[in-house]
Amino acid sequence: MASWILVPCLVSLRNEFNRLAPGRDKASDGSIGDTSHSASSSDHNPDETGRTPYEDSDHKNEVHAIDVDDDLRKPGWTMTKCVEIIVTRHREGRDNRLQNVIYNRRIWSRSWGWTARRYTGASAHTEHAHFSARYTTAQERDTRAWGLLEADDVTKSEFTAWMTEWARSAAGREALARAVLAYDPGKDAHGKVPAGGIANPGADAAGNPTVGAAWALNRAIVASILGYQIRDRIDELQAAVDALAKTAPGPVSPQVSARTALDAIGSGGMTPEQTAAALRAALGEDGAASVGRLLTK
């Protein structure tokens, strides 16, 4: 077969794949077609000596298609992503060098606006992606970048999306919880508690100005429990005072407070029986008995 060359635009595309993923597998790479291609019209055939779907205006024996193995061996990158970048650029009018792209049983073509259609050819193109260039001289010679290396820089939105996905996972939630609970920023260069730090209320605050969130949470839970207990005791005392206000005659009024109720008990204006009943209502049997013994000494 006469010598042939690959159109320059596809040389630049293949080189960009190599720069993007230097360790990629090339087992399914290809350009000029085999005998099965030469028996039919194909972009893999040289356009001066083989059967091709189109003809260009020069007399160079050029191949207008390449296959690129889909095993990129690069974290975060798949051939699906690469095809999406290249096709999107063509669909949006930012590139116009390709005629069609085939990958994983789908074909995108300039002929119908770069929308995906089912590909029913002999090869499903699951192990490589096929890229066909146009047969126009300007597009053949255009070797500018294809956008893959630009997309290799992680954007803020991509990073946010990845972190959100991770944070919602079981591993992410566990890691974040551990990090938050263990956080103890200490002090800044001026010896002050930095923003977000939890001040240490203990006697060792001079040397250890902040505490971990787990310790603070534990103390908050303890304080909450004690607070409920204290409020329960206050409610019990208020109920006792209310009962005393309803049952005690004489100097105890319906709107009596705990202090005035106790003052009334010690004022001498109540009979011993009334005082005993008031003490039992306010302090319970055991408490009233203890106070009664003190009063009779």
The counted number of beta strands is 9
List the secondary-structure elements in sequence, H or E. EHHEEHEEEEHHHHEEHHH
> For the largest beta sheet, what order do the strands appear in spatially?
3-7-4-5-6
Termini separation (Å)? 128 Å
The largest sheet is: 5 strands, antiparallel
General form: rod-shaped
Structural overview:
The longest helix is centred in the C-terminal third of the chain and has 35 residues. The relative contact order is 0.08. The chain is of the alpha+beta class. The radius of gyration is 42 Å and the shape is rod-shaped. The strands form 3 sheets. Strands 3-7-4-5-6 form a 5-stranded antiparallel sheet, with helices on one face.
SSE diagram, text form:
Blueprint: E1 5-6, H1 8-20, H2 35-38, E2 62-63, E3 65-69, H3 79-91, E4 98-103, E5 106-109, E6 116-118, E7 128-133, H4 137-141, H5 148-151, H6 156-168, H7 170-182, E8 198-199, E9 210-211, H8 213-247, H9 258-265, H10 272-296
Parallel strand pairs: 1-2
Antiparallel strand pairs: 3-7, 4-5, 4-7, 5-6, 8-9
